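Standup notes
- DV: blocked on the single-chain target, sequence here:
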Amino acid sequence: AGASGSGRRALLGLGAVSAVALGSAAALTANAEPGPDERSLPRRYDAEHVAAYFADRPCVVRRRCWEVVRQVTPLLLRLLFDWKMGALQDDAKCKAYAVEVREVLADLGPAFIKAGQALSIRPDLLPEVVLKELQRLCDDCPAITWAEARATLEAELGQSLGDVFADLDDSPQPVAAASLGQVYRWKRKRDGSIVAVKVQRPGMAHIVVLDLYILRRVARFVRFVVRQISWTRVDHVVLLDAWAGGTVAELDYENEARNQDRFREELALRMRGRVYVPQVDHCLSTRRVLVTEWIDGPRLADCSPEVIRRLVPVGVECFVAQLLDMGVFHADPHPGNLLVKDGCLVLIDFGLVAEIDKVSMDAIASSCIHLISADWQALFDDLIALQFLPPDADRETILPPVQSVLQQGMRAGANIRRRAQNFQAISDDMNKLFFDLPFMVPAYFALITRALCVLEGIALVGNPEFDLFWSAYPYALARARALLGSRRTVELLTVAAAQAASQLTAEERYAVWQSGPRSSIGTTDALNG
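- DV (later): unblocked, structure below
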């Protein structure tokens, strides 16, 4: 016990010394330099423009690095020590760490809050006690003062709030506070309708872009190290730039309003009343203020299991339609952005969306069918078309480990316990794939992966038996029929059925045979559109 205490004190001392040293260096070099100037920052992310902006503000960068290290290092060292000692098996200690992690992420600002939000709906990655704490980041972000919010609103609208909205309190409270802004529920004066008014936090552009600038420098270092020790072709800087582009776009509420209009029109045609997108008031919306129709309804994640089971497939179909038909998709579907009203799924918050070209859309549809039908040779061609692999990739060397990883993942399905049991084996194979083989990750695919993980996480919270692949299969099958033709699609299904049957026991094959007529109906309907 004494040795353990000494080791822990040594680790904490090392972290404290590092943080103080970095802070002192920042203080000593704090010479006069330009202050924040959001007007000189681009609406669209430009890495060179951002680098030039912060080249004139080196002390700001140093102070921010020190702030992050000062808050994160002691926590990480204590967490690492307790993990090594096996102390994290205690629920009370795990709960305490979860609270501290949430508080640190909230203190560090938008980029870190968004990272916590992404993890908050992954029951297959984190224990329940941690998930519950991180989920508070979606709704319980610290709110700015009414004075700050009012100053931004009146500056953006160019008039007094009393001229635009009715029945305002002296100090109204926001109904929700997010990482980039907060939302008020007010009555619009001109027609008496209830609207949602989102106002951006002051100085967000400077704060967010500063974190992105620092992270990009970290990504350059990671890329250098990884390429020295492996054959991977993943460009971490390109991935960071893709994510940064979406994050900076979220700061432009006029861009979000245009996105929302597009989704409202497109989904009204495709989802036939099952998905609703609120209307935007363009007369009152600016770069930092967004006014939309107010939606009265609970979050999907808070509904009954029956409602979740009924609407989750609708949400999956909605996203697959965006991915395979619309060429633009909602890349931030966290629990707070999926509501339910009058039995209909409501989609809100269109700040982070991404586009995908027609060639990639078709390749994704084909890869879905080839994956489920276990056509590994054709799937390899899809990976080349999607730019995961170069055209000269060695099929005989790469395909076996790829097939092994995907087969394990498909067998695990939605069974969280089975996923945990297979995790080590899958992790070993993934390490081999990305470090020993010439894999790349297309920039746009980083946002697709994030959105898919978020959707699956929401579904698993409400339905532990949910399987993302099979939920998306009917829509992907219909899309494959349009691409490949009915005959080729049926051939793929026949081969897949034969391969699957060969792995079943006699009892399982008999059960499938008994349910055959019912199963064939779904396939026939999908093929017939």
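- Follow-up: The radius of gyration is 25 Å.
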